[in-house]
Amino acid sequence: MKKNIVILLLVLLLSLAVASAADYEYEIIPVKDSIESGENAQFVISITNNRKVIREFKVYSAEVEWDVPTEIIKAYPETDTVTKLTISPLKYVQPGMKGIKMNIKDQKTEEIVYSEVIEINVKSGIEAVSSYRASVRM
Fold first, then answer.
1. Residues 6+ apart with CB under 8 A from 12
2. Residue 91: phi, psi to the nearest 5?
3. How many Cβ atoms from other residues are within 10 Å of residue 61's Cβ?
4. Which of 18, 41, 42, 112 is the most buried (most CB within 10 A)?
5. Alpha carbons 43 and 28: distance in angstroms, whole number
6. Close Cβ partners of 95 (under 8 Å, ≥ 6 residues apart)
7. pTM of the model
8. Which residues contact 91 (CB under 8 A, 6 or more apart)?
9. Mean predicted confidence (pLDDT) in 21-28
10. Per-residue pLDDT reduced to its tens digit, 29-76
11. What whole-number distance in Å separates Cα of residue 2 and Cα of residue 8?
């Protein structure tokens, strides 16, 4: 009998965890994810709030080579909230695919509720450099 009650409680707790996971949906959508060195990348962050309460989320990254502004997004009940995010390199970034880990944290619980590595393709600036012709006079 005790075993059945414990199993029933575990099933109930698991079903609550699954139900709360669907309360919010998060998506980071690339708008401009292929850039030249020195340009800005742009993404759209979408948070769908399926609950009947307003919730605030903090979007941030701990990356040191990129300027990723911290955004506070207020998600209103039963709506999609969309915010544009502009990411800039802080210094010269080598050409190639770069991964930047983005985090979304619930402001009320201080818990990271979503993480995603977004990719930015930094194109080579060789075309601009190859047109330059050095000239030295003696």
1. none
2. -145, -175
3. 19
4. 41
5. 7
6. 37, 122, 123, 124, 125
7. 0.72
8. 65
9. 87
10. 999 999 998 899 999 999 999 999 999 999 999 988 899 999 999 999
11. 10
